[in-house]
Amino acid sequence: MDLHKKQLEHYKKAINLSETGRNPFGQLKLSAKLSLLDYKKWKTKKVKIIGVGGCASCKRLVGKAYSVDEAIKKMPLPNKRCSYHLYPENRKYGFCRCTYVTNIPQ
């Protein structure tokens, strides 16, 4: 199985955890790491964080760029302080929707 498919599987698991009121952070972290490893496999040098609205904490991360190796080491995503709730009825755990993009100058 390729890294992208594994990344999507972990993201889907995170959604399910959030939907059932459980903490999605671990699955989101695996998903983000697999995404970075896939970028590295394709020789991508830099990534940038983008968000879709999001909470104030995530907005501070949007636009930050990292080398792929630095992002793997620091793992800024998922944001531990994210306060967005994918399912408003389950407000115990945040669900960071920020992601990495690669179309930036290398």
The residue fraction in helices comes out at 40-55%
Task: Please count the helical segments.
Answer: 4
Unreliable runs: none
- Specify the overall morphology: globular
Describe, in plain words, how this protein is organized in 3D:
With 106 residues, the protein is mainly alpha-helical. The protein has one domain. The protein is built from four helices and three strands. The protein has a three-stranded antiparallel beta sheet. Helix 1 packs antiparallel against helix 2.
Layout of strands and helices, then pairs:
Blueprint (H helix, E strand, L loop, with lengths): L2 H17 L5 H17 L4 E5 L5 H4 L5 E3 H7 L24 E3 L5
Antiparallel strand pairs: 1-2, 1-3
Keywords:
globular, 106 residues, single chain, mainly alpha
